Amino acid sequence: MTRSHLRTCLTGVLLMVVGCSQQQWQAADPYGLMEAAYRQPFPVIDLDQPVASKTSDRAASLKARLARRRQARAAAVKTAKRHPWQATGKRTWTYIVIHHSAAEKGNARQFDLAHRKRGWDEMGYHFVITNGHGGSDGAVEVGSRWRKQKWGAHCGGTLNNEYNEHGIGICLVGDFSTALPSSTQRASLQKLVAYLARAYDIPLANIITHRDAPNAKTNCPGGRFHQYVHGPMKRVMAPDLADARRPPRQGVLATQR
Ligand SMILES: [Zn+2]
Predict the structure, then answer these.
(1) 172 in helix, strand or coil?
(2) d(Cα 112, Cα 187) in Å, to the nearest integer?
(3) Which of 75, 107, 201, 207 could form a Cys-Cys staple with 246, CB 3.0–4.6 A?
(4) Domain boundaries, the chain
(5) Cross-strand bridge partners of residue 127
(6) In angstroms, rounded to a whole number, what is the distance separating the alpha carbons of residues 106 and 84?
(7) N-acetylmuramoyl-L-alanine amidase domain: which residues (predicted)?
(8) What is the pLDDT of residues 102-120, one digit of tens each?
(9) CATH code for 95-253?
(10) How far does residue 155's CA lie from ligand 1's centre (Å)?
């Protein structure tokens, strides 16, 4: 083998190794969202099962095998379980609004009861992230509002009720004026926000806390947590969400803080 042959061969092997590097896969899914989605039970279909027919015609056998594969794929797509946070509907979501419950314990069921007592239709938030007191630490509870793709009841007082009409409300259980949510709650929040921002093309600037909304007369979600959302959390998420297609609504948000 000549020297130039050897060089070509080595370059080829190197390209194959780099091309399949695990780092690329990890970079494409930094929050493990796909991993979470694929942990759902999927029907197991063996696409490479040999065709039962023992026809001597090789071409016909290949055709049958391909048709079988196509059918199996279509069936897999049809019956695959949806991501637990995925919803079907046509509502336009423009903002993600983060809240705290300002109480040590709670869960979606308790908030639902409390909100109904106030005369509301049902729990005002779309998602609740529990803290180990009333629900396990970091569990994401999906409210029935989200499944129905219904407007929120968590961020009133804005022009045209904009932040309720188009804002996804996430409440973390706890009081975060001086303390931060648990690391498990923070990890769940980051996963949920990344999922929603990607799914609805919500830019980083429109990921806000309750007190950021115009005319909001509240401290929610507490000073410490507010700083965390706009500091460390967004810094980590920025490279990943930079490609959100919809531009931020500068006019609406310019008056905040
Ligand atoms: Zn709030």
Answers:
(1) strand
(2) 24
(3) 201
(4) 95-253
(5) 142, 170
(6) 21
(7) 81-222
(8) 999 999 999 999 999 999 9
(9) 3.40.80.10
(10) 7
